From TrEMBL:
Its main location: membrane. Converts heme B (protoheme IX) to heme O by substitution of the vinyl group on carbon 2 of heme B porphyrin ring with a hydroxyethyl farnesyl side group. It is found in: Cell membrane. This is Protoheme IX farnesyltransferase. HAMAP family: CyoE_CtaB. One of its GO terms (molecular function) is protoheme IX farnesyltransferase activity. The keyword NAD does not apply. PANTHER family: 4-HYDROXYBENZOATE SOLANESYLTRANSFERASE (PTHR43448:SF7), PROTOHEME IX FARNESYLTRANSFERASE, MITOCHONDRIAL (PTHR43448). Pathway: Porphyrin-containing compound metabolism; heme O biosynthesis; heme O from protoheme: step 1/1. The chain crosses the membrane at residues 26-45, 51-71, 92-114, 120-139, 146-165, 177-196, 220-237, 243-260, 281-302. It is an enzyme of class 2 (transferase).
């Protein structure tokens, strides 16, 4: 019997497919950290200007996601975690993804610069370029240091938010950048430990593929130790305070405990429980970042009420 599906026409993309093209989960983290960077800055923005700034930073993040999906469609199709994305799934054509990415890039950069200042627009332009070209087109397929260096793309949003409000870069903005920058490697390597087969099949030189899981476990612990001073240092800046510091100490103690548990495990134990520890640390790492920036928001509210700071 002839399969009736052979007579179906080409798939048509729906609104949801184009939304997924912009990587909404990644965008939500970008929006949140950029918003915190903007709100904790010592210079207040009119609410309309602030909303506009966050909107165009979000569009810039979506542009980066679309360009990344356009370029990575071949390897996305090989990985379980990404094969359902709109381009490898055939819902959005590569040319459409490229056009959307370029259009949103131009709109977001120009409008952010006009709404706030040229430095903020320039930082957003550099972030999109860094993620789409430096990370996606170069680092991701050429070096196991891909997420170490490439992590800068995800670390810029709070700095962009800060610059949108103040027009300048400061120690606080740099420490927010370093918090995300140093958090990215242990966060992604925890994921790579239980998704290694996908990366290997797709030919992505993740550290687990090129140097093995033992080396990756060592790096998770090492980068977690390197992360802690930057995270805690924010507590001693004008945007920090006792609430942030208490939250940061507790979160870093737990993150270090998880990294240590990853470090001391061998592959037999990990495979026996299907990488339960690694998955738990990966999930906690998301909460870790969210709560750090959430604590900065709490400090901003307390400062505004004259109750926070040192």
């Amino acid at each position: 019997m002839t399969d009736i599906r052979s007579f179906e026409g080409p798939k048509e993309a729906g609104f949801g497919d184009f939304v997924q093209l912009l990587k909404p989960r990644v965008m939500s983290l970008v929006v949140f950290t950029a918003m915190v960077g903007l709100l904790v800055a010592p210079v207040g923005l009119h609410p309309v200007v602030g909303f506009t700034a966050i909107l165009f930073i979000a569009l810039g993040a979506g542009a980066s996601g679309a360009l990344n999906m356009w370029w990575d469609a071949d390897i996305d199709a090989m990985m379980r975690r990404t094969k359902g994305r709109p381009v490898p799934a055939g819902m959005v054509q590569p040319g459409e993804a490229l056009a959307i990415g370029l259009a949103l890039s131009g709109i977001s950069i120009v409008m952010l610069a006009l709404a706030t200042n040229m430095l903020a627009g320039a930082l957003l332009a550099f972030t999109i370029f860094f993620y789409a070209v430096v990370y996606s087109m170069w680092l991701k397929r050429s070096t196991p240091q891909n997420i170490v260096i490439g992590g800068a793309a995800g670390a810029f949003p709070p700095m962009i938010g800060w610059v949108a409000a103040t027009g300048s870069v400061s120690v606080e903005a740099c420490l927010m950048f370093m918090l995300i920058f140093m958090w990215t490697p242990p966060h992604f390597w925890a994921l790579a430990l239980f998704m290694n087969e996908d990366y290997s099949k797709a030919g992505v030189p993740m550290l687990t593929v090129t140097h093995g899981k033992r080396v990756t476990r060592n790096h998770v612990l090492g980068y977690t130790l390197a992360l802690i001073p930057f995270a805690i240092a924010l507590g001693f800046t004008p945007i920090g305070g006792p609430v942030y510091l208490a939250v940061s100490v507790l979160l870093n103690a737990e993150f270090l405990r998880g990294a240590y548990r990853i470090w001391k495990r061998d592959e037999a134990a990990a495979e026996a429980d299907k990488y339960k520890v690694e998955k738990a640390v990966f999930r906690f790492s998301l909460l870790y970042l969210f709560l750090h920036f959430g604590a900065l928001l709490v400090e901003a509210v307390l400062h505004a009420q004259g109750m926070g700071g040192w």
